[in-house]
Design a protein that fits this description.
By secondary structure, this protein is of the alpha/beta class. Helix content is 36%, strand content 22%. It has a single domain, classed as SPOUT methyltransferase, trefoil knot domain (Alpha/beta knot). Strands 2-1-4-3-5 form a five-stranded parallel beta sheet.
């Protein structure tokens, strides 16, 4: 299963180092692409028609690490491309949110979109380790 992060903006310091770190760690577990667009309005045109699209939004469904790992395992079994969408400072446009198959939240707080990107990468890595039966803090 191919996983893609569709994000607004290029990753910059201080997040760039953590982004590169988790992308490097994830290579062992799954292919991962990152598509960076300039603005929120550019997200919709980059949405694939055949992928499982997940919008990362504060109002989405929250889950702990074990539940996220189980969710990811189910997505992998479905063998369908997986797209995570992270909006910019203004969030995800309504049309993109509406086109998503699911909405997931990392909590009710608002966080910088570049930080959300790093959190997603870390959670994908954590979930991949859990799925592989490897030790990782839950």
């Amino acid at each position: 299963m191919k996983t893609t992060l569709l994000v607004v903006g290029k990753v910059r310091s201080p997040y760039a180092e953590a982004d590169a770190h988790y992308r490097r760690l994830l290579r062992r577990y799954q292919p991962l692409d990152v598509i960076e667009v300039k603005a929120d309005r550019d997200l919709e045109r980059r949405l694939p028609g055949d992928a499982h699209v997940v919008a990362l939004e504060r109002e989405g469904r929250a889950c702990d690490s074990l539940a996220f790992a189980e969710w990811l395992r189910e997505r992998r079994l479905a063998a369908r491309a997986l797209y995570f969408v992270i909006g910019g400072p203004d969030g995800i446009p309504a049309a993109v949110s509406g086109a998503a198959a699911e909405r997931i939240s990392f909590g009710p707080q608002t966080m910088a979109h570049q930080l959300a990107r790093v959190v997603l990468l870390e959670q994908l890595f954590r979930a991949s380790k859990i799925i592989a039966g490897e030790t990782y803090h839950n």
